[in-house]
Design goal:
The protein is about 20% helix and about 25% strand. It is α/β, with parallel strands linked by helices and about 350 residues long. The longest helix has 13 residues.
Length: about 350
């Protein structure tokens, strides 16, 4: 994601104007009535920790249980920064063992979806699996993900991590339910071997699949990984086309840290069509098929089309932004044209570095 994640962790990246990427798994936890939630963080931690607000928006600010933030630490062989998500689990294996959970549910925070995790846990317990992988069919390059093959009874028969020649379009969604003892035993074995832990797909999942006790849970609804500028942009286009998740589902609220901003102001002569406009925006120009985050200003004569404009950005008079992502607190100068000039990068990013 380049400059968009230079000064913020990816889970803290804004989405759909009002939200952050991490809001989706946290809200799924709350709606699934999962109240013991641990957040592992190390890169740009303040960008996440400030937003988490001790778990209050998700009812996780509890006396017992609730939100626990796990940071890198010194002391013991597990000290230091993790070199991947499986390595992060290994470094916190003592806490996992002491907590003695029935199921360890591991979630990524860079995808857009809604899912009742209770259904995943129930299926996992019923099959007595060592790991249950939540899977989804994708319409983009499956080689970006972990690609799975499934046999009878939902058993995962093959797993390939980011393969050059994927066998199918069925991929893992980075949602995994583990049997704790199987997870801890495998982490111990890998930690004592010369095989690097790194990410789930490098050694942990292949080892569990080879043991024959890995199963899938198919997510049939909307799911999109937003780990690239193109997929992040496309997820916003899905929203304006009505194809994304229902963000106003009263039975499945997507919660976030509440803001205190006034309503948006649409000036006389402005034009807004098929767009999401957040609080405190001021629009005097033309906006089409775009998402404006809080505090965005589009001056008279400016045009914003097929774009995502993040918090507090200003599009000056006469500027044009087309199929682009404009980062927070940036200013597109008067008369400028922001668009992609590279054929292999169909989405432009306009951002300042070192903010």
């Amino acid at each position: 994601m380049g400059p968009l994640t230079e000064n913020r962790a990816k889970p803290a990246l804004p989405f759909a104007g009002l939200y952050r990427l991490i809001d989706f798994p946290l809200s799924n936890c709350t709606n699934s009535r999962i109240s013991d939630v641990w957040v592992l963080q190390q890169y740009q931690p303040f960008s996440i920790e400030d937003h988490l607000a001790n778990g209050r928006p998700w009812d996780l600010d509890r006396t017992s249980g609730g939100l626990l933030i796990l940071q890198p630490f010194t002391g013991g062989e597990e000290e230091g920064f993790a070199e991947g998500n499986a390595d992060a689990l290994w470094r916190h294996r003592r806490l996992i063992r002491e907590f003695d959970a029935d199921v360890v549910l591991v979630l990524s925070a860079d995808a857009i979806y809604t899912l009742d995790y209770r259904d995943v846990v129930d299926a996992h317990m019923e099959s007595d699996a060592d790991v249950t992988m939540v899977t989804s069919k994708v319409d983009e390059d499956p080689g970006r993900f972990g690609v799975v093959s499934v046999g009878a009874g939902r058993r995962v028969t093959d797993f390939a991590y980011k393969p050059d020649d994927p066998k199918s379009d069925l991929v893992t969604t980075e949602v995994f339910a583990y049997r704790p003892q199987a997870l801890l035993d495998t982490l111990d074995d890998l930690g004592e071997s010369d095989e690097p832990l790194d990410d789930f797909g490098d050694a942990l999942l292949p080892r569990l699949v080879a043991a024959g006790s890995a199963y899938e849970f198919r997510l049939e609804g909307y799911w999109r990984d937003v780990g690239t500028p193109e997929s992040y942009w496309q997820a916003h286009q899905d929203l304006v086309d009505g194809k994304g998740p229902d963000l106003d589902d009263l039975n499945w609220r997507i919660r976030t840290t509440a803001g205190h901003r006034p309503p948006a102001l649409i000036e006389a002569g402005a034009s807004v069509e098929r767009s999401l406009v957040s609080p405190a925006c001021q629009v005097a120009g033309r906006v089409s098929r775009s998402v404006l985050s809080p505090g965005v200003v589009v001056e008279a004569g400016a045009v914003v089309e097929d774009s995502v404009i993040l918090h507090g950005a200003v599009i000056r008079a006469g500027a044009r932004v087309d199929r682009a992502i404009v980062d927070s607190r940036t200013e597109v100068p008067a008369g400028a044209h922001v668009h992609s000039t590279e054929q292999d990068k169909p989405v432009a990013i306009f951002a300042r570095t070192g903010q």
